[in-house]
Amino acid sequence: MRRGRGSPKTLNGVSRGLARALVAAASRRQDQQKRLGGLIYNLQRTDLDAGCTVDQDVEWLLGIGVFLIWNHEKLDFLEFLQYLQFKTLDVHIFKICIFDLRRGQHEGQELDKILFFFPMEAPFSAQLSVIGLCEGIITFTRIFSPEAACEVIEAERHSYVFYEAEPDIWMVMVMEKSKDNESFWRCDALRRILKEVHYLFMMFHGSLRSLLEKQPGGELARNRLYPFVLDYLTDFYVGKKLQMPSFRDSLRERGTVQTLTVSREVAIEVQSLITMLGYSCIGNTTCKSVILFHDLLVSTTLSPEDTTNIYTYAVLRLTPQALSSSTNSWSYLLKGTSATTVAVGFTAATGPVSDGSQQLSRDASSAGQGQGNNVPRPLQREKWFKGKDGFLTTDIWGAEVGSLVPVLPTVWLRETEENMCLCIYQHKNLTVVILIPACSLINEQGLSLAKQQLVENAYPKILNVEEKLSRGWGGENSYHVSGYRYLVIDGDRHISRASPPGKVTTLAKDSLLTLNKLREEVDLEKLRAQRTNPEHENDFEVCIRAKNNAWVIAKVTRGKELHMVLEKANETLLYATEAVEKFSNRYCEGAFSSD
């Protein structure tokens, strides 16, 4: 559900009427009537006496409150008004909350529903205000759409992005809008952040519902959620500022993998290596594998969804680039020609570049030691090390009982629903992630034997594959196409390919802003088509001329998407169309050609 933006309005007679309706409805709750009326009076007096305007969304939220009261919903609307006061004092432009609608439904138990809230220092009253508001919006939208509740709310000063991670367990991101252009973002990109962190969490800890069932009090789920999400957020820090994806990241698709194209000869060598890795396990079990070269996927034996999760974790923490760098590997702001400038600018203003992420990491450490237990933190930075034997080791999961040998990390595969041990081998820029069934590794001796078999059988093939890939490697600009800035997405296979980040930073701001708006329209069109007829693929193409005369193009066909910017293009639409045809035929096997 979306709501358009409008100009601010003063607190007029309509909103005063809504306020009076709230007071009248509260008369059935004598213990709160006086306080409720006082809050409304203060809200009116503050805005009118100071000559200020009230956000259009204030009236809208009050309207929702009245509607739900009239429909006898079990909601505490004092929280709505507390939220309106809290937002005027709020200094955080970014919030994330995770809550369970099945919990905290009785008076005095409201805190039970909160599983995670960022920023951590927000008082419980403020947390309940935000979550109470979100719960009210979800309940309200379910009246009109029971099967698909709210996804996005665009208010005057905030964007609310909703994601139902599990049945009745919601993740909500609140972004405050500012006057500068940097506050333009794509809500689907923000939702993909929520989806990504939930998928990664499930891969290491299992579902939130299973944790809540295992420990109904909620401490187990919270003790794992807080350090995990806080560690995840460290990758978005630039200096002391949390930099979420904006319009500058429009040529990137989170939740997909970037693949490496190899020749037929190299593909045969890779397939031979995969076969060898599959039989490196002990006994009759079969290993699975994911192979990366630099930050690009070479091969996988997992499902697209599990591949995406392993690939994401590898790029964040396991590849040579991740091991050697403490900077964010996702944002375009930290790649390419402008990376140094951006980092230096923030350093001069706020101190060392890592200050923000280090503070968040310390918060995660304190959050992960509830009940005296050290919770494994898979996303903790600088905790993986390459040994002399080429295997990566970490002490994140602790050590074997009575031994100094680190416990092998385990992950949960969504498709097969089985636990697998992670064994990572790295040779130069080749990272081999081997997934061994946890049931086959009974003890430390089993792990040592598995590593020994891998070295004896697969090591020569690993050397051969790495050598051939390096020989054909063209550097980070390998997939640059002169004159084009592009993003190609294969949604069915969770694969994407894009212009190198350093090339994307050369685009003008007008081009990126236009592309961001166009992608939002594409997201809306896809959502409408999916709800109207999920089995029917809606193909369409849009070409827009930006203010700087650049052509911005989006084309969707047969489950694939092409997003493109042509800045140095001829003025005719025919030229732009022919440019898309040429690109499609040469680099996409004609997937986006008109015929």
From TrEMBL:
Record-linked InterPro entries: Ccz1, CCZ1/INTU/HSP4_longin_1
Coiled coil: none
UniProt-annotated stretches for the region Disordered: 352-379
Domain of life: Eukaryota
Domain CCZ1/INTU/HSP4 first Longin: 96-206
Pfam families assigned: Intu_longin_1 (PF19031)
GO biological process, one term: vesicle-mediated transport
GO cellular component: Mon1-Ccz1 complex
Polar residues bias: start-end ranges: 355-374
Family membership noted in the UniProt record: Belongs to the CCZ1 family.
Protein name in the entry: CCZ1/INTU/HSP4 first Longin domain-containing protein
Organism of derivation: Dioscorea zingiberensis
